[in-house]
User: What shape does this take?
Amino acid sequence: SLSVLMFELSLVRLFSIAMYSSVAFMSVSFALFGLALGGMVVYFAPKYFSADRFEERAGRYALWYGVSLVLFMVLFLQVNFTSQDGEDAWHGLYLSGLAFYLSAAPFFLANICLSYIFKIRGSVIDLLYFSDLVGAGLGVIAAVVFMSVTSTVNVVFLSAGVALLSAVLFFGQNRALRVLSLALAVVIFAGTALNYFRNDFDIAYNKKGKEENVIFSKWNSFSRVTVKKEMQLEYGDSLPEGKELSRVDQVGIEIDSDAYTPILRFDGDLQKVAFLKNDLSGLAYHLIPKGDVLIIGPGGGRDVLSALLWGNAVRGVEINPIIVNDIMKGAFKDFSGSLYFHQKVDVVVAEGRSFIHNDTRTYSVIQLPLIDTWASTLNGNFALVENYLYTVEALEDYLSHLTQGGVLSLSRWELDGVRLVPMYVAAAQKLGIERPERNIAIVKNAKQGIVALNNYLFKKEPFTEEELNGIDAFAQENGFEVMYSPRTKKDNAYYGFLAAADKESFMKRFDRNIRPSYDDKPFFFFVVNPSQLFLPSEETVGRFSKIDGGLGEVAFVIFLFVLLLIAIPFSHYYVS
Assistant: This one.
């Protein structure tokens, strides 16, 4: 039980690195399928799983389970599970099926062993159940602890070693198998220790393809953070296109091979990063005097530099201690110019929503600069980090912590950002804000479609004429487009929603799910309607060829495996 829980939590983390976020949390379904199938095999084959030679047979399944974990990890690291451009839907189904088979097989073997034990030793069910719960609880603790110390790859190897030690205990009467199991356990533990120092076995493919140019890597219980050397400098979608702007060297932080935040080379001279004044995400600083700024998710510090350029004092709230302590205050302290030690910068490690809910200060600007992980947590994707920062109640917290005239600034892709407007309207109603359409401004970069990056500005009070002039001037200077402001009328979703007499009907007719997300349903990023699960997106979303990230394919594979391995084989038992 300890080994199974270690592996199950590790699997969620591995899927988060190797697969799209909408698929990663399905690893729990893969695990449950394997466990269910193993239990059914024991139940429907009572003659084989009898008391005769119980210890040896149970030991063999424990042995095979331990070996299967090693094989799983070795094979998993060799496969690129993400469909690349030009590959058809059948390839995606093949990859989903392969991931399903590789991950479900160890759970299948493990639960044959566990179910066999419960079947034969039912006379001491109280002791078994107690031991099962204790083992599972220790497995959760061990997974969290070891993932913070070493890589998740090594945690899987450790869980294999634990499984083999359990096999040793079963083989009390079979010296040869007992010695074999013990020898394999010793080899695995020794190999894991060696891999801790040498890192010969690690992630080779992530959801973007082959992993390259990694100069720093570290795991914790909820993420894998890497720093990559940028072979071609990319400054993101928040800077204007076609303008000659100064450039500085940078490296890129990636969380679970997806969420990206750059570290700009900085020597203390803010004028060398003055091009950030043209950054779309810094629009709020053009509108209000300098003051205290709260940045939720400062990451590699680019947005901190942008705030400092305007003379603001910055408080940053970063959830990942690796980024703050190991990278910005550690390995890349000199590269970043000791940015997180700056006299006007205070960065704390905390979860942003919890922090602001308990914070007593107010801020002239609260900024969320494209905060998303699009990665699964230990509790499954769409459970914790996914995402209580983007709910109606969260917007209430942000707005309540603004000074008079303060601005809430959120940078989001058009794909899901359109959902922020219905959420703001819902939050405004709860806060007693009248005519919220006067308190919204939206500016986007030149790129078209649902991959466009937008900056959403929200206030508690209406925008002043001076502020609206500043927004128009900023957009015109940088080639950005004002998508919405109280004095501009355009035929788009924002005006359509805000002008609609029946907003519920408008949201129902929209081609994506833009209903407000609340704390009891915090699935902000999941904008797919059920009818779209098996359909390709009309527009390519970055590197995603499907708007659901392949969730429909995985759902189909799970249905197929259940049909072929459970429903049909055991149907005659159900009928009888």
User: Anything to note?
Assistant: The chain is about 45% helix and 15% strand. Residues 89-120 form the longest helix (32 residues). The two ends are 33 Å apart (CA to CA).
